[in-house]
Amino acid sequence: MSKEEKNEVVKKMSDLMRSGAVMLEHTCPLCGLPLFRIKSGEVVCPVHGPVKIVKSEEEAVEAVSSAVLRELEKAIARKLHSYVELLAKEDINSSEMKDLIYLLDILERVRRIRKT
Ligand SMILES: [Zn+2]
């Protein structure tokens, strides 16, 4: 985490406290920060927003893998976008075309895994 990111987290945590949120004993399964119960009753992480409190190791693993897959899907989508732009400009070479197909393949797999 960079210094700016840390400052951002500290700011979010103090904003939460100021708005009457209560710091809980539980920590975020994704980043390990303390979770807060906000006035609506919802449990939130200062970084990840609303999260479910996990009760078991299994649930924790599941939460982390689904977050990782979501990130992966986003990263692939961004990369695909850059190739699609090349394609639109008809400025794509055969190796980039192969990459594009490869990325689509990964994307399809990620989506399939996420559905299960
Ligand atoms: Zn978190």
Q: How would you describe the overall organization of this protein?
A:
The structure is a single chain. This protein has 116 residues and is α+β, with helices and mostly antiparallel strands. It is built from three helices and four strands, in the order αββββαα. The chain folds into two domains: 3-53, no CATH class; 59-115, no CATH class. Helix content is 60%, strand content 13%. Helix 2 packs antiparallel against helix 3 (94-115). The longest helix has 32 residues, at 57-88. The two termini are 31 Å apart. Zinc ion is lined by residues 28, 30-31, 33, 45, 47-48.
Quick structural gist:
With 116 residues, this protein is an alpha+beta fold. Helix content is 60%, strand content 13%.
**Overall strand count:** 4
| Low-confidence regions | none
Proportion of beta-strand residues: 5-15%
Helix content: 55-70%
- The span between the termini is 31 Å
Major beta sheet, specifics? 4 strands, antiparallel
- What hetero molecules are bound to the protein chains? zinc ion
Topology order in helix (H) and strand (E) letters:
HEEEEHH
Rg (C-alpha, Å) = 19 Å
**SS field, number of helical segments:** 3
Order of strands in the sheet with the most strands?
Answer: 1-2-3-4
Secondary-structure class: alpha+beta
Shape estimate: elongated
Mean pLDDT: 89
* Number of structural units classed as domains: 2
